[in-house]
Amino acid sequence: MSSGKCSLQYAVWGGPEIWAAVNASLFHSNGKQFLRDFHDALSLQLGNSNIYLLNGGRVALRVALQVMKNRSPGRSDVLVPAYVCPSVVRVVSDLGLTPVPVEIGPDLNLLQSDALNRLDRNTLAVVGVHMYACPLALYALESACRDAGVYLIDDAAHSMGAAKGSAPLGVRGDVGILSFNQSKTITTGVVEGGGALVINNNALCADFGAEARSIGQPAFSLLGIGKFLLEYQVADLTRVPFYYASRLGILAGARNENDVRQTRWLSSASCAIGLAQLRRVSTIRREKERVAARYHEMLRHAADVHMPQYAATRYLSRVMVQFSTPALRDGARARLRRAGIGDRLPYPDWTGLTITPHRAATRVYDHLLEVPSRIDLDDHAISRIAELLCLSEARTVRADN
Ligand SMILES: Cc1ncc(COP(=O)(O)O)c(C=O)c1O
User: Fold this and answer.
1) Mean pLDDT to the nearest integer, 131-159
2) Which numbered atom of ligand 1 lies nearest the CA of 183?
3) 179 lines ligand 1 (CB under 6 A)
C-alpha cells in the first residue's frame, strides 16, 4: 500500500488459478479428473460427507429446500437470520416459502434462543449461517430441530476450511451449504460461480439422487474468467468501472446479482481453479487471522468502534467494524474514500419491522462497515486504516483537553 490506496480483495488469485482455468478449458477435453480430485479433496476436509458440486451456494440452497419442501408439503416457514445475504432470502421466497427473520446476537450470527422460540408446526427449515465464517454453535438447534421435525441447514457459504473446535463448518444438521463465489474463502469466481451441497443426513440421499437427475450440464467460459478478473481483480487498477457496468446490466445481460441461476453441475475448469484455491486455504486463513488481530489491537481502546466478530485465532472471511452511531460510520466511510481505501456496506435490512422484541439487527444495518482484509496488508497499512476509522474520536478527545 505504498501509494496509500487499498482496495477490498474479492479473491486471492494468482498464476495458478489462471493457469488452472486455461489448462482445464483448453487442453483437457475430459476434465473428469479435476471433478474427482476437487470432490475428494472437499470430502476429505468435510469428514467424507456426501457432496454435490453445483454452480453456486444459492443453487445448493434451492436444491436442498426443494427436497425438504417435497418431503414436508404442509410446512412453509423457513427461519433465516435477520442479517444475511439477500440471495438467501430470495431463494426461500422464489420457492413459494416464507422467510421468517430470526434475531441476531452481538457476533452477527442468528440468536439461538430466538430461533428456538420461533420453531412451530409450520416451520420447514432453519438456515443456520456462520456469518463471515464466525462459527455458530448448532448443537442446541440441532436437537430442537430434530424433535420438532424441522430441517437444519448448516450454511457455511463463507467458511470453507473454517472450524468450530476441530469440526469443520458445514457438516452438521441435515445439509451443509458451501459457496465458492467472490468474497468467500475460496473462489472459483466465474460467471457461474460455484458452491456445494453437503448431505449430512443419509435419509435424504435418495431424494437428492432423484433431484440430481434434473440438474443441467456445467457451463464455463474463459470469457467468464476474464469478466471476473476485470470486475473484481483489476478494476481498481485500471479505473475502468466494469463492476458498475455489470451492475447496470451492460455486461451481465441485465441480471440482478441476487438472481438465482439455473441449477447446473460445477464445471471441471471451476474444479481445477478450486483445487488451486484449496492449496492456498491455510495461507489465506493464517494471513486473515493476522490482519484481524492487528485491526483488533489498533481498535481495542476505541470507544465508538469495535469488531463484533473478533476472537483471538478466529478466522473471519471479512473484517467488519461496528460504530456506535450511523453518523460515525458514515463519517469514517467518507474518510476512507477520500484516502482511496475500499469499503463495503453491510447486507441490507430485509426484515421490515417484523422482529420483536430485541431488534438488535437494526443496530447493524446502519452501523457496520467492511474494511479491507487483504492478505497482503502490512501492519503499517492496517494501523493507518484503523486511525481513519477512529479519527473523529481523536478529534473529540483533543477538543476535550
Ligand atoms: C450465507 C450465504 N448463503 C448462501 C449464499 C449464496 O452463495 P452464492 O453466492 O454462491 O450463490 C450466500 C452468498 O453470499 C451467503 O452469504
Assistant:
1) 95
2) 14
3) yes
Instruction: Please work out whether the CB of residue 85 comes within 6 Å of at least one atom of ligand 1.
Output: yes
All three cell numbers of 138: 448448532
Distances (CA, A) of 150 to 76, 112, 147, 228, 320: 11, 15, 8, 38, 32
Distance 326 CA to ligand 1 centre (A): 26
Domain count within the chain? 2
Segments forming the whole domain that contains residue 39: 15-212
Pocket residue to mutate for ligand 1, from 79, 83, 85, most atoms within 8 A of Cβ: 85
Cβ of 129 below 6 Å from ligand 1: yes
Are 377 and 1 in contact by the 8 Å Cβ rule? The answer is: yes
Q: Is residue 7 part of a domain?
A: no
CB-based burial of residue 175 (10 Å sphere; 0-12 exposed, 13-18 middle, 19+ buried)?
A: buried
Average pLDDT on 389-398 reads 64
CATH value at residue 203: 3.40.640.10
Residue 181 Cα: closest atom of ligand 1: 10
Cβ-based burial of 135 (10 A; exposed 0-12, middle 13-18, buried ≥19):
buried
pLDDT at 272: 94
Residue with CA closest to ligand 1 atom 16: 85
* 153 pocket-lining for ligand 1 (C-beta < 6 Å): no
Residues 25 and 149 in one domain: yes
CA-CA distance, 227 to 198, in Å (whole number)? 29
| Whole-number average pLDDT of the chain | 87
Q: Are residues 27 and 150 in the same domain?
A: yes
- Ligand 1 lined by 109 (C-beta under 6 Å): no
Average pLDDT of 64-81? 97
Kindly give the distance from the C-alpha atom of residue 390 to the centroid of ligand 1, in angstroms, as a whole number: 31
C-alpha cell recorded at residue 156: 457455511
Instruction: Say yes or no to pLDDT of 149 above 60.
Output: yes
Mean pLDDT: which of 45-59, 114-128, 233-247 is highest? 114-128
